[in-house]
Design goal:
CATH class: Mainly Beta
Number of helices: 5
CATH architecture: Clam
Helix content: 25-40%
Number of strands: 6
CATH superfamily: Lipoprotein localisation LolA/LolB/LppX
Largest sheet: 6 strands, antiparallel
Radius of gyration: 15 Å
Length: 128
């Protein structure tokens, strides 16, 4: 199972939540300030995956943490226990039920996603 899209989707939602509905210079400056001043974050999350008809087809929840630069932990508790951990060099995707780990290079797994902006050292202008 590829866990990258839900991870990217969540970080994108965080970014969009930091901005107003109409992107203005003030909203972008507020987001830049948040990114510059924030070194660590821990939060519980819940997310819903909807089909094209907006029907919820899966719900998941867990804990996410990041420490700048380049470290993050994303733990899914439901519906399946999975862990995604990045240390700036590698990202480990661990499926608890299968007792299986997949390892990828950090820059390939995270790339220019919103996760890279929050956990990494990139700027908004570089990729967004």
């Amino acid at each position: 199972m590829n866990l990258t899209p839900p991870l990217n989707t969540f970080f994108l939602c965080i970014l969009l939540g930091c901005m107003s509905s109409s992107v203005s210079a003030t909203a972008i400056e507020n987001l830049k300030l948040f990114i510059q001043q924030t070194q660590t974050v821990q939060a519980h999350f819940s997310q819903a995956l909807a089909d094209r008809n907006a029907r919820i087809i899966q719900r998941s929840s867990g804990i996410m943490q990041f420490e700048r630069p380049d470290k993050f932990r994303w733990i899914y508790k439901t519906p399946y226990e999975q862990s995604i951990i990045g240390d700036g060099e590698k990202v480990w995707f661990y499926d608890h039920d299968l007792n299986q780990v997949t390892v990828r290079q950090f820059n390939i797994a995270i790339g220019s996603s919103p996760a890279a902006l929050l956990a990494g050292s990139g700027t908004i202008e570089e990729n967004f």
